[in-house]
Amino acid sequence: MKGIISIFAFFFLLYFSVLSQELTKRVIAEDMQVPWEMRWGHDNYLWVSGIDGMILRVNPETGARDTILSQVPNLVRYPTNEPGLLGFDILTKNSITYVFAAHTFEGKNFSIYVRLIRFTYDKNISKLIEPRIILDSIPGGYSHVGCRVKSVEDSLIFLTIGDGGRLDNIPSQNLQSYAGKTLRIKIDGTIPHDNPFPQSAIWTWGHRNHQGLCITSNNIIYSTEHGTQGDDELNALKKGGNYGWPFVEGFCDSPTEEQFCKDSQVIEPHRAFTPTLAIAGIEYYDGKKFPQWKNSLLVASLRSPFFSVFPLNVNQDSVLDWWKYPIIETSRLRSVCVSPDGRIFLGKSQGDHYGTKNNKDNAIIEVIPQTVNIQEDIYYDESKSKFATIKNESLTMHNSTDITSVELYNSLGEQLIKINNTNVLGNELHIPFRHNGLLILVIHFHNGTTKTQTLLAFAN
Question: What's the rounded mean pLDDT across residues 229-250?
Fold first, then answer.
């Protein structure tokens, strides 16, 4: 019998060691401009853009930083609004490192526009030099600017642009305007021949304010989009797709929306969130540091500042679940960065709208796993703290007032039970249940921690 238990334990260490980690954090650097974007540099440093126009290199071990760009040329910044230095990405090609950065500037009649500019990194002096405009005079605004930048295949750039807060002329539904769109261009600013609309940089349309952009290993493009008071969206961006704004928010779930969705072939989100979370930075994760998050999307939130993980299916074209980790930070989380070896970094800012001060709450933190040895719990021991028992065809949760949700898995990794409604969890909860064999119970607590307990169930 003991040998059988050990075999089951081996399976669970393969399938469920990923569920046996708790999270903590480590502060990398504080007292920064609002870290709007972070990228992992070719030099194994974090490259970070500050909304006021600065780009830094930050040592991920010590937090030491050096300024590689002190100010984006012609940048316009309104401290209580969105304009400023926004998304950027790094591209190293033929031993030359480029930075593609998006920023706002002021045009005629004090109108706000977005410009994509390319810098070359001079490693001898550790500075960004030779600014060159790649795409110019994209409609912007005092709000709903977007935007994120993502380089792909050493030859293409994706750029998300918000609607600028405008509903006059409905720019998001106007294919003659770049407002409320995802743009796709070559790295020299020219239009790819295979874009969905001839001589246009538009890749997708019908967006309100998409502030996150990532691409999976299967080249599925995901974005996060802000709703009004509800219906934030997690979207997969498909070539030529219309995402509905302003006639549709979230799913096509009202009579008016249903008709517009049908007529305009609107693509619905994978997830919609009400009330709004102001979901922002997003990255695809396939690393080894957090194996429980392998093949998942990592998403930061501004309004409800918890860190979200969305596991994907094998093809990466469908979201399977939503896991929340509220303990990580209480400030606004705007950006996510994943290193090649699977480390996770978050950029945070203080509670005011866009961070008008430089203080310790404008910072970079690293998410740290704390591994718990679940094998210690395989053998039943009355002296140990236990959260659940199985007896008389019932799963009993003990001291459950501190628990937010529970999940129970079998040896194949199949979920048998999931309970999320924490309001009804009493001090002791009895769940009718009948199953034989070794089980893993995953318990999520109000304080953000996650613990596991191994259970053996036998026929009565």
Answer: 96
Instruction: Write the CB contacts of 311 (distance below 8 Å, at least 6 apart in sequence).
Output: 293, 295, 296, 319, 320, 321, 323
Closest listed residue to residue 130, CA positions, set 177, 87, 83, 97: 97
What is the mean pLDDT of the segment spanning 239-248? 97
pTM over 0.85: no
Residues 6+ apart with CB under 8 A from 438: 5, 8, 9, 11, 12, 378, 411, 454, 455, 456, 457
Give the model's confidence band at 286: pLDDT under 50 very low, under 70 low, under 90 confident, else very high.
very high
Q: Which CATH number is 24-371 given?
A: 2.120.10.30
Would you report the helix, strand and coil content of the chain in percent, each value rounded to 5? Answer: 10, 45, 45
Closest CA to 335 of 393, 281, 259, 293: 281
- The domain spans of the chain are 2-12+372-457, 24-371
Q: Give the CA diameter of the chain.
A: 81
Compute the radius of gyration of the chain from its Cα atoms.
24
Q: Looking at residue 77, what is its pLDDT?
A: 84
CATH code: domain 2-12+372-457 is 2.60.40.3080
Residues forming a β-bridge with 349: 332
**Tens-place pLDDT, residues 252-271:** 999 999 999 999 999 999 99
For tokens 């999320």, the residue is 420
For 184-199, letters b (16+ CB in 10 Å) and e give bbebeeebeeebeeee
